[in-house]
Amino acid sequence: MKFYTCLALLMTSIASVSAHTTMKYPLPRGHPLNPNAATKDYNCLSAPLNGGAGCAPKAFPCGGYPQDTTVTQVFNAGDVISVQFWNPNFPNGPQPSDATANQARHNGGQCEFALSYDGGVTYTVIATYHQTCPDIFFDWKVKIPDAAPSCDNPGKCLFSWSWINAVGNREFYQNCADIKIVGKSTKPLPIMDITRANLPPQFPNTITPPGDPANTGNAKGSGPLDSDTSANLAMNIGGSGGSSSSSDSGSGTPASGTTTSVTSTPTTTLSATVGTPTTTSSATESSTSTTSTATESTSTTISSATEPTDTTEPTNASSPAPAVKSSTSNTTPQASNNPLASNGSSCKNEGKDYCIDSGKSSSYNTCDNGLVVTRQCPGGTVCITAGGSVECGRSSRKF
């Protein structure tokens, strides 16, 4: 009892320094309540990665906090978990009388929950809550995909929460929990990137998402939108015959002077802007420097045998596109088609996976936001190209 009383007093004393919200379940790295945290940050864990209020800027990903000393948080593919938030102003949890108290939630905004199998280099967004998140008074349902493969690689298997606030300074928040995943699939999950914004110079684009309809500011809000909860639990990531995304993920960095807007599922909109934020109800990607539009698409499968069609090139209705001349001369393959392309080189075939040495090596390359990222199959398995897709499994070939 004495320990918890001291902890409560300590949390109250530091609340004025940095009283934003953190994830409480799953317990993230660096959290004062995490018994396995390699270091406990009592002052700045809840601060944005941008820094502020006596807190220095923190590194992406995961605020730069070291991995847990022991990984004890285990989830099965298909599990539905109730994510909870915590605020140092409420060390014992929120009480009914605290509904109007300040939890520094900036009238909500956009929360994304994602899995990473490579320590936060690449992500698969598995749930998105718009407008009303975060809020310590509510649980937020998130489903671990049925097709999630096992992951038992300490420091690499992460459950990430990232938040872009609706009101206040443009900031980027992230907590990461070290987890284990028990699954049956041998295929990697497709990359469905988190929204990267409001963290210059690394993420220079500016996003201002819509806020809580209740407009309660820092007090208790409306809670999860029913439409978001339903859409998140219905996601079929990495599977077949279902929707793979209901999130505004993979924003990337728009070119200077452009504005992009993505219609979110089912009705809300998010604007990503360099300069002045705007909102739109259009379901197309728009640009202020051209009158052309191109519908934005999301891949629902990984590593298809046929190279996907590039839909990002705008068309001009006033004149036909020039014919492309074929050539029989030998050319060096572009990074998007070259399985041996080096990590960090440019690529065009977004989301495409290639085994580096099928049946022998655990390494495979993925085109992620225009750059090649080298990833590893988990658990001592190797990358195998089978029928045009990439799988992680045991090879029958003799090495």
Give a structural overview:
- The structure is a single chain.
- With 399 residues, this protein is mainly beta.
- The protein has two domains: 1-293, Distorted Sandwich (Coagulation Factor XIII, Chain A, domain 1), CATH 2.70.50; 339-399, no CATH class.
- Helices cover 5% and strands 23% of the residues.
- It has two helices and 19 strands.
- The longest helix has 13 residues, at 2-14.
- It is globular.
- One of its GO terms (biological process) is chitin catabolic process.
- Keywords: Signal.
- GO terms for molecular function: chitin binding.
- Residues 311-346 have a biased composition (Polar residues).
Please state the second-level CATH architecture of the largest domain. Distorted Sandwich
Task: Write out the strand line-up for the largest beta sheet, numbering strands in chain order.
Answer: 5-4-7-8
Characterize the main sheet: 4 strands, antiparallel
- Radius of gyration of CA atoms, rounded to a whole number: 22 Å
Distance between the termini: 59 Å
**Count of discrete domains:** 2
Structural class category? mainly beta
User: Which CATH class of the largest domain is shown?
Assistant: Mainly Beta
Strand content: 15-25%
The counted number of beta strands is 19
Give unreliable regions as ranges: 1-18, 245-336
Number of helices in the DSSP assignment? 2
Portion of residues in helices? under 10%
GO molecular function: chitin binding
Domain Carbohydrate-binding module family: 327-386
InterPro entries: CBM19 (IPR005089)
Protein name: 12277_t:CDS:1
